[in-house]
Amino acid sequence: MLGVMIFSLGVLGLGHCVNNCLAAEAARWDDQRARLALENRFAQIEAGEVSTVKDLNDQLEGMFDGLTLKQTRKPLGAKNEKDQELNGLYEITLEVLWTSGHEPQSKSLSFYVLRAK
User: Fold this and answer.
1) What is the pLDDT of residue 32?
2) Cα–Cα distance between 69 and 96 in angstroms, integer?
3) What is the pLDDT of residues 54-78, one digit of tens each?
4) d(CA 30, CA 96)
């Protein structure tokens, strides 16, 4: 009887470990999808395919189903060595939002672009 109890505790402990491993793998997969979504949008902006003139809020589809990508732009307001305003220099912030196990998750990326008005 004692042996069966020890064996059942071991099996329950192993089941708990497997559950934790599956949850960690799901979180890693969601994180990888979010990073790829950020990388794709960055490449689209760099290539000029996506406008940076207005803020965007996109529900992603396909491989990225369940992710929301927010794109915001603000003027950098930097000045050169002659104390002149640098026009056309913007900070772009990309943020991917998703829900993982009833918990909101996010990843963000900020970079600068130089665009003519």
Assistant:
1) 95
2) 4
3) 899 999 999 999 999 999 999 888 8
4) 11
Cα dihedral sign, 25-28-32-33:
positive
Cβ atoms 112, 91 nearer than 8 A? yes
Contact call for residues 92 and 71 (beta carbons, < 8 A): yes
Q: Rounded to whole angstroms, how far apart are CA atoms 87 and 90?
A: 9
User: SS3 letters for the chain?
Assistant: CHHHHHHHHHHHHHHHHHHHHHHHHHHHHHHHHHHHHHHHHHHHHHHCCCCCCCCEEEECCHHHCCCEEEEEEEECCCECCCCCECCCEEEEEEEEEEEECCEEEEEEEEEEEECCC
- Residue pLDDT, tens place only, 5-34: 898 998 888 888 998 898 889 889 999 999
Tokens describing residue 52: 């940076």
